[in-house]
Design a protein that fits this description.
The chain is α+β, with helices and mostly antiparallel strands and 137 residues long. The mean pLDDT is 86. It has a three-stranded antiparallel beta sheet with strand order 3-4-5, with helices on one face. Strands 1-2 form a two-stranded antiparallel ribbon. 35% of the residues lie in helices and 17% in strands. It has three helices and five strands, in the order E-E-E-E-H-E-H-H. The protein is elongated and about 90 Å long. Helix 1 crosses helix 2. The chain has one domain: Double Stranded RNA Binding Domain, CATH 3.30.160. Belongs to the prokaryotic/mitochondrial release factor family. This is Ribosome-associated protein. It holds the Pfam family RF-1. GO terms for molecular function: peptidyl-tRNA hydrolase activity; ribosome binding; translation release factor activity.
Length: 137
């Protein structure tokens, strides 16, 4: 069971973890030991609240496929257990991002002085460009 926060937790059946061989530069054991982890989490089939599912699917994250499956590959550590913990931690962090409610954006207006400064700069630039003309003898 993966605890996200005090209200939300994920059961073991919701998270599919498979071990794979790590990629990258070789060492003595890299081609023989499957120490990397592939974690798959199907958002639609999960027990998360519908609102959190929608926010997760709306996230612009490359780890979320078009089918709504989160795929996390962990291969930072040399042992399978540490990579598994790392993958679960990254999944919890990703779901935690979706739990945060964003405040609605309130459109702001430029201040009167900033508008006035902008217009003064435009006038000044126009005057400079007007002086670049041909000089009459």
């Amino acid at each position: 069971m993966l605890q996200i926060n005090e209200h939300i937790s994920l059961a073991d059946w919701e998270i599919e973890i498979s071990q794979i061989r790590a990629q990258g530069a070789g060492g003595q054991n890299v081609n023989k030991v499957s120490s990397a982890v592939h974690l798959r989490f199907d958002i639609q089939r999960s027990s998360l609240p519908a609102e959190v599912k929608q926010r997760l699917l709306a996230l612009a994250d490359q780890r979320i496929s078009k089918d709504g499956v989160i795929i996390i590959k962990a291969q930072s550590f040399r042992t399978l257990e540490l990579n598994r913990e790392d993958a679960l931690q990254r999944l919890a962090q990703l779901i935690g991002e979706a739990l945060k409610q964003q405040r609605p954006r309130r459109p702001t207006r430029p201040t009167r002085s900033s508008q006035q400064k902008r217009m003064d700069k435009k006038t000044h630039k126009g005057q400079i460009k007007a002086l670049r003309g041909r000089i009459e003898p």
